[in-house]
Write a structure and sequence with these properties.
Rossmann fold; seven-stranded mixed beta sheet; 22 helices; 39% helix; binds the ligand Cc1ncc(Cc2c([C@H](C)O)sc(CCOP(=O)(O)OP(=O)(O)O)c2C)c(N)n1; binds magnesium ion; magnesium ion binding
Length: 540
């Protein structure tokens, strides 16, 4: 078969459901085979940052591979930021970049889209991927692809595939099937025994679930384990939106001083905290009131399990949880644990809208019409989402780049068929909101909540005063129509409630609800977060 076909079959066999991309002359040959072969559907978008964010989100949402296909130089380097975000937020993103062919690379001319050297792009991607390959040899290509894709899956981090345009149609053998690296279940059982003994000795055991639980598709298994143990479960900020509709005794999301006192005390006062797949980042732990004493913590992450003074190497999270399920017995009574609380019952009146009112209106909408998966951008919209009842959430909670909100929402619908709710600030919408113009072509119809405070408000909260936080009023609602959707600007509770209901009643296109907010009007969660950051930075 053709090398490009072998690559696309390997991606599909390992769970990829679609490709997001923008072609270029170095990529046209493999894009043509992608379209002709129909192995995977192609969704083209308008700007490579959107391609990267969308492909990353598809992978996160399905706990499978997300695929971004671009051209050399101008395309691939335009996507560095989203790939970096996928790397640190542990997303299984596959970057395929077209590249110059062998002969043209040897002519001694500077090629268009080339930087310093032909391999400059490869070197740049070495820094933000866990594996990099160049498909320049028909004999070695199938095995190279298999090994790189297996690394992507096992590490849940991006990989880089450089595809010279003169290689796409060479005849090759099929790519070998997924071959997990050998895991030692005995080591996992020994580790599980010690973890459960650790929890058993603790007065206040607690489990924190992190992003790896979602990335490796372990939500059901973790729910089974924690339901048996009956001890409190929290999610990290990054992992908000997992364990939805499961029997896990979930008491909320840990946000340190920015979250509820109940959750904060349960985590920070625990003498037996088990962190499963949690990224030790400032956004997950930056506003802890009390440093978490890592001597009483067991931390399973990146295929290692760390105790205070020793570790178990190469114990994948899946094996640890399986081994714990084999020997788990009740340690507490889940029925006595407090469930998270959320705001409901927004009054339909002429009051101005505050961010928390948006969460309240969304919760009311979910009660009436059913929950929707959410894609949120960085900004107060993400902190507002913490007041929305637990539902699948794709958000840049660690690397914190602006821009993923709209592309990620489109990807949720492309990969799952579910109508998403997109939450995005006006600043972030200015960056990638225009990708909504691709909805009509693909029949996507997200409901978009655009928080328009005419401001980079998060920055103003950290640094009051300068005028450069002021954004102009772009009148976004009026732009929705020409882009193929419907837009409405809302200023009161009643207008917001009506706009949400109208969007629910009309699935013919995307609905852009431009929510006008006063500058300085921020969510309670963001307010607590910023105050905590200020207080902790002064205290040190
Ligand atoms: C690509 C990119 N550029 C810059 C930033 C810095 C930054 C923030 C983070 C802290 O680094 S929050 C923020 C303002 C966001 O404005 P908007 O989308 O309107 O949301 P809101 O008004 O709710 O703040 C910026 C510019 C970023 N995170 N990502
Ligand atoms: Mg704003």
């Amino acid at each position: 078969m053709l090398l490009a076909e072998a690559l696309f079959h390997a991606l599909k066999d390992r769970g990829a459901r679609e490709v997001f991309g923008i072609p270029g002359d170095f990529a046209l040959p493999y894009f043509k085979i992608l379209e002709d072969s129909q192995i995977l559907p192609l969704h083209t978008l308008s700007h490579e940052p959107g391609v990267g964010f969308a492909a990353d989100a598809a992978g996160r949402f399905n706990s499978r591979l997300g695929i971004a296909a671009v051209t050399y130089g101008a395309g691939a380097l335009n996507m560095v930021n989203p790939v970096a975000q996928a790397y640190v937020e542990k997303s299984p993103l596959v970057v395929i970049s077209g590249a110059p062919g062998k002969l043209e690379s040897m002519r001694g001319l500077g090629l268009h889209h080339q930087v310093k050297r032909i391999d400059s792009q490869y070197k740049i991607f070495e820094e933000i991927t866990c594996a990099q390959i160049i498909l320049d040899d028909a004999k070695t290509a199938p095995k190279l692809i298999a090994d790189a894709l297996d690394r992507c899956i096992e590490q849940s981090r991006p990989i880089y595939i450089e595809f010279p345009r003169d290689m796409v149609a060479v005849e090759v053998d099929p790519v070998p099937a997924f071959h997990p690296s050998c895991e030692d279940m005995e080591a996992a059982r020994a580790c599980a025994k010690e973890v459960l003994a650790h929890l058993n000795c603790a007065e206040k055991p607690c489990i924190m679930a992190g992003v790896e639980v979602r990335r490796f598709g372990l939500e059901e298994k973790l729910a089974e384990l924690t339901h048996t143990l009956g001890i409190p479960v929290v999610t990290s900020f990054m992992a908000r939106g997992i364990l939805v509709d499961t029997e896990a005794p979930l008491i909320g999301t840990y946000l340190g001083l920015a979250g509820t006192e109940e959750v904060r005390k349960t985590v920070e006062r625990s003498d037996g905290l088990l962190m499963l797949g949690v990224i030790l980042s400032d956004t997950n732990f930056g506003v802890s009131k009390r440093e978490i004493d890592m001597r009483s913590v067991v931390h399973a992450f990146d295929r290692d399990v760390h105790f205070a003074h020793h570790s178990y190497p190469n114990v994948p999270l899946e094996f640890l949880i399986e081994a714990m399920i084999e020997i788990a017995s009740p340690l507490g009574d889940a029925k006595k644990l407090p469930a998270p609380t959320y705001p409901y019952g927004l009054k339909s009146d002429d009051s101005a809208i505050a961010p928390t009112d948006v969460a309240c209106a969304v919760n009311d909408m979910f009660v009436k019409h059913g929950r929707m998966p959410i894609a949120s951008d960085m900004g107060d919209c993400l902190f507002t989402a913490m007041d929305i009842e637990n539902t699948a959430l794709i958000a840049p909670g660690y690397y914190a780049s602006m821009g993923p909100g709209v592309p990620a929402g489109l990807a949720i619908q492309a990969t799952s068929g579910q109508r998403p709710l997109i939450m995005v600030g006006d600043g972030a919408f200015q960056m990638t909101g225009w990708e909504l113009g691709n909805c009509r072509k693909y029949g996507w119809n997200p409901i978009v909540l655009l928080f328009n405070n005419k401001s980079w408000e998060m920055l103003r909260t950290f640094q009051p005063g300068p005028n450069y936080h002021d954004l102009d009023d772009w009148g976004f609602a009026a732009i929705a129509g020409p882009l193929g959707g419907k837009g409405v600007r809302v200023k009161t509770h009643a207008e917001l409630i009506d706009a949400l209901e109208a969007a629910q009643q009309d699935s013919s296109c995307f609905h852009l609800i431009e929510i006008m907010l006063e500058r300085g009007e921020i969510s309670q969660t963001l307010n607590r977060f910023v105050n905590a950051v200020k207080r902790l930075s002064v205290a040190k």
